[in-house]
Design goal:
By secondary structure, the chain is an alpha+beta fold. The protein is 64% helix and 14% strand. It contains five helices and three strands; from the N terminus they run ααβααββα. It has a three-stranded antiparallel beta sheet with strand order 1-3-2.
């Protein structure tokens, strides 16, 4: 049981680490406003956020690693969108982490 709790806490810490960056939070907010047919490519995301394309790519790589974002190739470009289920799960993880100190 202790090992499971330790793994859960480590998973929560990894998620918090990914979400601790303001640019990644802005990316998530921007992507969460889009639906899959209107997903955005790296170039559009970089333009809207005012950051470089390589920076956006690195942030997307981390968000994809934890499953919050998914890309879909369309022609020569990959368009990105939020994985809604994963975002809901992340919200549950955050809520659970906040309840650790209770009771």
């Amino acid at each position: 049981m202790k090992e499971k709790k330790k793994a859960d806490i480590e998973e929560q810490a990894a998620l918090f680490s990914i979400l601790a960056d303001p640019t990644r939070l802005k990316l998530l907010r921007l992507l969460s406003q889009q639906r899959e047919p209107n997903a955005l490519c790296v170039n559009a995301l970089a333009h809207r956020l005012g950051v470089t394309q390589p920076a956006v790519s690195q942030h997307l790589k981390l968000l994809k690693k934890v499953g919050l974002v998914r890309g879909k190739k369309r022609g020569y470009r990959v368009h990105y969108f939020v994985e809604r289920e994963a975002l809901d799960t992340a919200q549950e993880v955050i809520s659970a982490a906040l309840r650790l100190g209770e009771g």
